[in-house]
Design goal:
Belongs to the ABC transporter superfamily. This protein is an alpha/beta fold. It has helices at 40-47, 69-73, 91-101, 108-117, 132-143, 162-179, 190-196, 207-213; strands at residues 2-11, 14-24, 29-33, 55-60, 63-64, 76-79, 150-154, 182-186, 199-202, 219-222. It has a domain at 1-75 and 150-162 and 182-223: Rossmann fold (3-Layer(aba) Sandwich). Bound molecules: adenosine-5'-triphosphate.
Length: 223
């Protein structure tokens, strides 16, 4: 379980997140929505241990972010908005490179299967020859190598075609429900969020989002 309590973040005097509290159960996919600059990436960066909150506490499976950062990092998979892969390497070489850095070891077949699960079949192709959407699929596959418990996905499907998006969504739902993963997911595509997520967190108290989501039948938390 992930527990976030009274989390706040300010950049100098600019308050971005204020008194955010929520929890995520194993098996849940949580959507994070809000206008540009609302603080979604900031929240994911904090949950990924890349930034510190100004106030508040976070626990992952009863481990405190403050005291057990190294061990918590092993349980986190993070896909940032910016693609972070080696352009000169092939897909295979990227997967092998990141597997060597990972906490958990996987054989070549398992690495290849992860790419296929993301609808990416360009195993021997150099990354620089792939489309933007294909690079995002590779980024997603890399984030799953170490079998993380908490998956933080910051607009992971931007530029990915609709068919692949549906396939990836189905894969993430299976990952959450069958393997008890916790997934936090940001997207500006409300249909995707409503389709994929069990609950939705709106950041930035803009009523626009609540109005769109009100008929979705999903539980909504607003901050
Ligand atoms: N390192 C930083 N230093 C100062 N201000 C920052 C920093 N990072 C983010 N901000 C500010 O914090 C606010 C929240 O940014 P953030 O990237 O978290 O928003 P977001 O909801 O992810 O936006 P988007 O939908 O555009 O991705 C913005 O006003 C941004 O300018």
């Amino acid at each position: 379980m992930l527990n976030v309590t009274s989390l706040s973040k300010a950049y100098r005097k600019k308050v971005v997140l204020e008194q955010i509290s929520f929890s995520v159960q194993p098996g849940e996919i949580i959507g994070l929505v809000g206008e540009n600059g609302a603080g979604k990436s900031t929240l994911l960066n904090i949950l990924a241990t890349l930034q510190r909150p100004t106030n508040g506490s976070i626990y992952l499976q009863e481990k405190s972010y403050k005291d057990e950062k190294q061990s918590i990092r092993k349980a986190i998979g993070y896909v940032p908005q910016d693609i972070a892969i080696w352009e000169e390497f092939t897909v295979e070489e990227n997967m092998i490179f990141f597997e060597k850095l990972a906490w958990k070891k996987r054989g070549n077949e398992a690495l290849r299967q992860l790419c296929l699960d993301m609808s990416l079949d360009k195993w021997k192709e150099p990354v620089k020859t792939l489309s933007g959407g294909m690079k995002r699929k590779l980024n997603l596959a890399i984030s799953l190598i170490h079998d993380p418990t908490l998956l933080l996905l910051d607009e992971p499907t931007v530029g990915i075609d609709l068919k692949s998006r549906k396939e990836i969504g189905a894969y993430l739902q299976e990952l959450a429900s069958a393997h008890e993963k916790m997934i936090l997911y940001t997207s500006h595509d409300m249909d995707e969020i409503i389709d994929l997520c069990d609950r939705i967190i709106c950041i930035g108290d803009d009523p626009f989002y609540e109005e769109i989501l009100i008929n979705s039948g999903k539980a909504i938390l607003s901050f």
